[in-house]
Amino acid sequence: MMTLDIHKIRQDFPVLDQRVNGSPLIYFDNAATTQKPSVVMEALSHYYKTDNANIHRGLHTLAERATAAYELTRTKIKEFIHAPSSDQIIFTAGTTGSINLVAQTFGRANFSKGDKILISNLEHHSNIVPWQMIAEEKGAIIEVIPVDDRGVLDLEAYRNLLDSRVKLVAVNHVSNAIGTINPIAEMIQLAHAHGAKVLIDGAQSIAHLDVDVQKLDIDFFAFSAHKLFGPTGLGVLYGKRELLDSMPPYQGGGEMIKEVSFEGTTYNELPYKFEAGTPNIADVIAFSAAIDYVNGFSKEALFQQELALLAYATEQLSVIPGLRIVGTAADKIAVISFVIDGLHPQDIGVLLDKFGIAIRTGHHCVQPLMKRYGLVGTCRASFAFYNTFEEIDLFVKALGRTINMLQ
Amino acid sequence: MAYSIQETQNELIEEFGLFDDWADKYEYLIDLGKKLPSLSEAFKTEENVIKGCQSRVWLHAEKQGDHLVFEADSEAVIVKGLISMLIRVLSNHTAEEIMKADLYFIDQIGMSQHLAQTRSNGLLSMVKQMKNYALAFSAK
Ligand SMILES: Cc1ncc(COP(=O)(O)O)c(C=O)c1O
User: Fold this and answer.
1) How far is the CA of A106 from the centre of ligand 1 (A)?
2) How many CB atoms lie within 10 A of CB A8?
3) Which of A378, A391, B4, B34 is deepest in the core (most CB within 10 A)?
4) CA torsion, points A168, A169, A172, A177, in degrees to nearest 10?
5) Is A365 a catalytic site residue?
6) Chain A touched by B30 (CB under 8 Å)
7) Does residue A285 line the site of ligand 1, with CB under 6 A?
8) Contact (CB<8Å) B22/A346
């Protein structure tokens, strides 16, 4: 295994080098958003300083440079997720944007009264609400794949829920709240066997797991750039060509048309059909640098580093009296959700911040999952490869002091 | 003679002035939170819940003579400590006094972070709600 020089890697992330409330920052909120390497900031400012132009429209030099850089990112994403072609990569505002796009186009065209949409009990609100909205409009029914006490989806129940009325299965690859890696390969096969399409919310897997949309036979894959060391407000939707082709457009406007007249409009081809208006050019271009950055490592080596952090933190936290880890699936990414008897997560989060430690507390946008476990919320520490074992030691120490202060 | 809103704020500023590190300050706050009597379950209604807090916070207001009396509770003890201070400052004053109150003590005791507009934080909504009650009572 290639060993990573974490000290050197940390220098690539300038934000990590600061003190918060008098202590060195410990950033354990990577599931909310990852930090950005300098190369991403540099690409962003380079674009604005030297290449800024609107894309696809102008034929002047700057427009050509900007267009080429923008389209290069698309190609890199295609390679990153092993898509067959870059015109199946659609830029959106984020995972949320991608899911809404599918709900409002694929959903609008394909759901009818009594059809079923299967989601899971692990879903983020972003992968619940868009389906509720279209289901209500179309009279479709949402059914939920249950989750067991460990945070593992009940595949037996899933099999039983699958029937010919299921039009779409929308599940996350990895749970943001508790880190479970779902067996999507098997779930996709089962769905396809019943004629259902599958949308995978890859927000939490994209930075950690290798995703091959073709091998996995994924119909739709959604993720956010900001969780892959890239800029905020940018996302990707991958879709199978025949699906994207058959879907009606989403938003109307410039870029997405072929010809407009007052009598009628013809739509542009993929991917532009789904990219109305001037897109988030600068962030798309800067995202390229994030992908290059990650590609500079072995993804497996990065993930092994994170798993080592997870194992160490799990072991350290488990000995704290009254602490219970929520989400104990065997297959997890480096996310630890926990609760402590008698203490409110918010109090823990406020005090840890005083120690310069950033974790997330609350319901993590998965209220139905919190309800399933009878919790108001949890504390969640989520690691990235730039985190260290020393940081975990400091975190555990600060948590001990926090508990003392609160009890 | 009851204290004015300003006097109570100055008193709090003085109390917090005794602490020179954040941990002492928060321990005091936690202590205040623990000492604040729980709100009776009858008042922990959906109506009394303050929106916009990561922990549930309930606020109950009652008119006693020409004064407004607040009682409140939260699941989180630090929030409860903050509430306890707000009650100490604002409760038992006239609607007009409450509406006019400039709550400078929060900043001066180094707790302005809790007024930040993050969605997880309820202090701002709490102050707003107290002032709304004052407005509603004065309009009656
Ligand atoms: C599993 C999952 N799905 C969807 C989202 C929404 O992502 P975004 O807010 O970037 O659209 C998140 C982000 O927290 C997530 O973790």
Assistant:
1) 20
2) 8
3) A378
4) 110
5) yes
6) yes
7) no
8) no
**Strand, helix or coil for residue A144:** strand
CB B72 within 8 A of CB B39: yes
The answer, for B6 touching chain A at a CB cutoff of 8 Å, is no
What beta strand segments (E) does chain B contain? 57-64, 67-74, 93-94
The structure tokens listed for A93 are 């505002």
**Strand, coil or helix: A209:** coil
Alpha-carbon distance A362 to nearest alpha carbon in chain B (angstroms): 6
Q: Which residue has the tokens 């520490």?
A: A381
Instruction: Give Cα separations from A107 to A189, A209, A224, A235, B56 (angstroms).
Output: 21, 28, 21, 19, 36
Considering the four listed CATH numbers 1.25.40.10, 3.90.1010.10, 3.40.50.2300, 3.90.550.10, the one that applies to the domain covering B5-139 is 3.90.1010.10
Q: Which amino acid is at A273?
A: K
pLDDT tens-digit map of A166-217: 999 999 999 999 999 999 999 999 999 999 999 999 999 999 999 999 999 9
CA angle A161, A164, A169 (to 5 degrees): 55
CATH numbers and ranges of domains, chain A: 6-30+298-406 (3.90.1150.10), 41-295 (3.40.640.10)
In this structure, the strands spanning A116-120 and A141-145 are parallel
What's the predicted TM-score (pTM) here? Answer: 0.95
CA distance A21 to chain B (A): 9
- Cβ within 8 Å, pair A344-B75: yes
Q: pLDDT by residue (tens digit) across A260-293?
A: 999 888 889 999 999 999 999 999 999 999 999 9
Would the CB of A100 count as within 6 Å of ligand 1? no
Ligand 1 center to residue A282 CA distance, Å? Answer: 21
